[in-house]
Amino acid sequence: MSHASERAQTRFLPDGRRLHLHDGPIDLIVEAFGVEQEVHCAYRAVVPRFVTVLDELCAELPLLRQPARPGHSLPRGTVARRMAAAVVPFCGRVFITPMAAVAGAVAEEILAAMTSAADLSRAYVNNGGDIALYLAAGERFVVGMVERPDHPSLFGAAVVDSHQAVRGIATSGWRGRSFSLGIADAVTVLAATAAGADAAATIIANAVNLPGHPAITRIPACDLVPDSDLGSMPVTQNVGLLSPHEISEALNAGAAEADLLLASGLIHASALRLQGETRVIGTVSPDIPGLCHSDLQAGGIRCLEPSVGGGNASRSQAILDVAGLQRCEANPLVQRP
């Protein structure tokens, strides 16, 4: 048995439906829907691919930590190539490295392993709030957006239908598990791919900013993680109370970036959150009956499945248990239709 397969941890969560995959910094929640035999086949295909991903990425880390540039040398691995491709559209105007798309790219790779092995109706791979989706014709997911992992609160929701081009969702912000140059509590992006959404969320979250503001604490990234791809760039560690005008100014800066990405076709929609205020670019927050703040239970993020009679919605599965929630960024949740 290889060292990678010994190191990686795979188990079903207590509900028996969702698979939890963990290897070093990679922490995935996976769920497939469809005929039982096909679902089992999809899960069997996941583990052999998952146990190889981290070592493949580590082998190319020096290249993946370099700033992206047009015509830059391409990495060899499939996940690394997804990362590189996702950041190319941004590298001409802002600082970005392929690492900005790593979570989304890993989620895509695991989803591809599932869907290539089985005929499913729906599936998702949630990598710390960066989610790759599969939808067969006529299927949909409802996605709720949570601004803070330490104090879960639902601030918006979106329906992703099979006819839409959206197959990736990602969230970034200074409170998340990755560094941010900006001050957004959460920026959630819907895009064609999870890797693309991951990169775009990073860029938009960086743009939600008030440079030089005395209430914002920043520390060079390399002081926190010596080999960070951000080097000595100052990353946000704390944001004090801001005035309504300052909140609006910071959100305006992020919204301008999101508008540009929307016009360029790089994102489908985005929701920006800062100290209780939200800015929405594109269509991301429909009115979904029965979806409310009370569905964030102490046991983790809870989802709703509308009852047959259209009355009170019944509780459905939790996408992340408490431990997963504490590890992850402001996590979108996925709901049964």
Determine the CATH superfamily: ApbE-like domains
Q: Bin the helical content.
A: 25-40%
User: How many helices?
Assistant: 9
Strand order of the largest sheet: 1-2-3-4-5-8-9-12-13
Query: Helices and strands: which structural class?
Result: alpha+beta
Question: Quick one: CATH class?
Answer: Alpha Beta
| Secondary-structure element order, N to C | HEEEHHHHEEEEEEHEHEHEEEEEHE
Strand composition percent: 25-35%
Poorly predicted regions are 287-337
Q: Determine Rg (CA atoms, Å).
A: 19 Å
Q: What is the number of beta strands?
A: 17
Straight-line N-to-C gap: 41 Å
Into how many domains do the coordinates divide?
1
So, CATH architecture?
Answer: Roll
- Return the average pLDDT rounded to an integer: 83
Q: What shape does the CA trace take?
A: globular
Look up the CATH topology.
Answer: T-fold
Describe the structure.
α2 runs antiparallel to α5 (102-117) and α4 (78-87) crosses α5. 30% of the residues lie in helices and 28% in strands. With 337 residues, the protein is an alpha+beta fold. It has 9 helices and 17 strands. Strands 1-2-3-4-5-8-9-12-13 form a 9-stranded antiparallel beta sheet. A 3-stranded antiparallel beta sheet has the order 7-6-17, with no helix packed on it.
